[in-house]
Fold this protein.
Amino acid sequence: MATISAQPYDYKLPANLNQIALVLIDMQRDFLESGGFGDALGNDVSRLQAIVPTLKTLLDRFRELQLPIIHTIECHQPDLSDCPPSKLDRGNGSLRIGDRSAMGRILIKGEPGNDIISELAPLSGEIVIHKPGKGAFYATPLSEILRERGITHLLFTGVTTEVCVQTTMREANDRGYECLLVEDCTESYFPEFKQATIEMLRAQGGIIGWTTSSAAVLAALTPALTP
């Protein structure tokens, strides 16, 4: 049985690689680009930008193999009807969800800042999940899509590690999916938060799942490209 070298122990691949999906969490302009929501909150967006080339390499390999790819976008309807008051009112910043910023209204579906960055833009046929929550399963069709396609293994990437990535991975684990976090394809504005999350997810024999490097994933998938 093929495996990916991982912690706390090797991650087993299914015999049918089409049961594996690469999940890219919230690689949106508002979180990664100067002038976006993350930048406006005083965060160093260059930390998140640093993973883009590595993630693009992994994305390209999945595209070469024609394996399932899932992109998520955190967003809300223009009237904010799907945004709970607790989320809308949270924080003391000068900008909130729905407010207008340099990239349009913050976290509103269809606004320029809500788009996935151009380097990782979805291609036709790739799954795009618009999610109103931090996790990708809440109030979305993700469960049904995975079930219909027979997907059992999920490789997680994206931002931020401790919020939307971790939340989605925990949701997936509770639903029985085999979850693997690709460490150098996820990032946080706070390096200590990323490291703590990695350690929590793989603690106690992989209580939530496994963690690995993109190099280990690419090495495991390379034989699949051999004629």
User: Anything to note?
Assistant: Strands lie at 3-4, 11-12, 20-25, 69-74, 100-101, 104-105, 127-131, 153-159, 178-187, 210-212.
